[in-house]
């Protein structure tokens, strides 16, 4: 934050300069009043002193309002830059580090803490400088009027300052605690709001209300502590100035009575003392705000230091587009890959992949099956390079993915996640998310391929229908197909489908198998499937168990030689109603011709759609 603030030094300095000019105008006012008293007492013309006074009033008002505007503007510029940088760093954050943070706390740091930091960096800092200058200027002028009255004043104010500094220290600690408590409260709210149906279905409203109530209570307690220290800070200064005023008036009047001081000097001194009260209060208010702001700045800086995805190959030269994936290399290869997740602040390791090796050809359907927790999704996340491998090698088109720019890896690989992530926004925005330049014809065809045409036709605003958070407004199956269409529009070289058929009924699943077959003629499709029937005719099936590849082969082959596969397939194929699954049929792989670029890497959608038009129209939403 400090480095961002430094970029706005010009505006900040201009604000401070205007403030100092305002200070000069205010400090000259008692002197002008002194002149007025002398002129009135001596019977001289008062026009000059009155004009002086009016000029100083106007200049003071003008400079202080200009200062407020300029400083406010600098503050907004600083917070804008900080938020822009923060958002960029959050979106590029390393997933392991990101996963350790509470999203509610991240939200609080990005929105509220940046605002508090703005107040501290711009307003409070300027207030401190300007008020400090007023106090110092006032003290010097008072010193010139009378040394001993000044010593009395400094004694009272000094005592009050010692108390105030001690209070400011305590205030900072309390403010930091309060910011952390507010972050935890926001995290609690975010946690339940993102799972509201689960909360209701589990009848956990009261429990959650109590839990969040406790977080709110902690925030209240630390907030009260902040207020208490804040409340003590200003009066401690006020007591000092009031004490000084009482002593100065008493002693000064005695000196005037004895003829040791003239009335005009005492009046000017007292006016300076009065003038000190407000800047002193502002000074300590500024200290309070700055102290609270420092706590916020500390939290913003911590967030900005979130580790980033390492793009070791960001500037690496060389081929990057699908058209340049060497045809003689497999699309994806795993060589003895080992990987462990790191959990919690202590980075405890959970070994998930333990020497995984297999390869996927540039065309055709590869299915990955295995019991829950075997590491199938993790494998996909490594292909997307969400995490670096701990050992071994993942290759894409024959190249180590660590040596490819991240952007290229993610352009080459399309990923339909297990939980079908859709977002708030229109259906069109969701569809074109990975390819914002997709035209209407391409959208229509991707929608047709994913079997969404009739669903969208029934919506009043069609593609422009707004979806709620996480794509609410569509059924689970429709959301899943929306994500498939989105990935189709991306035209990837490798398409990863994680349980993409889990929400489809058996008729729709049959149609989807047909789509898979079509798509797999144009790119490598890797599909995780719990339903063996979806991938029974895959060109290759990889059986995973406990982080290892147990066997690879085609259905019939695996039925004969792998016990786990036989068990998985046997229980499902016998348990599932409907027609017996067809015998494995190798997919005819079309001769490969390297497409020139990602944009044209796929054949025209028209061709693909023509072959898949026979997708069964959806009769009702329930069927999906
Ligand atoms: N972000 C994470 N942090 C820590 N451990 C994780 C994380 N994600 C997954 N795991 C662990 O890794 C293991 C493998 O998970 P993964 O999701 O890859 O399994 P899977 O085979 O896809 O399971 P399923 O078929 O149920 O989706 C599990 O034991 C899980 O607990």
From TrEMBL:
InterPro entries linked: AAA+_ATPase, ABC1_TM_dom, ABC1_TM_sf, ABC_transporter-like_ATP-bd, ABC_transporter-like_CS, P-loop_NTPase, Type_1_exporter
Tagged with keyword Transmembrane helix: yes
Annotated ranges, domain ABC transmembrane type-1: 14-292
Species per Swiss-Prot/TrEMBL record: Streptomyces koelreuteriae
Transmembrane segments: 52-71, 125-145, 151-169, 239-257, 269-291
Pfam families from the UniProt entry: ABC_membrane, ABC_tran
Annotated ranges, domain ABC transporter: 332-571
Entry's Gene Ontology molecular function annotations: ATP binding
Location of this chain's protein in the cell: Cell membrane
Topological type in the membrane: Multi-pass membrane protein
UniProt superkingdom: Bacteria
Protein name from the UniProt record: ABC transporter ATP-binding protein/permease
Keywords, sorted A to Z: ATP-binding, Membrane, Nucleotide-binding, Transmembrane, Transmembrane helix
CDD domains: ABC_6TM_LmrA_like
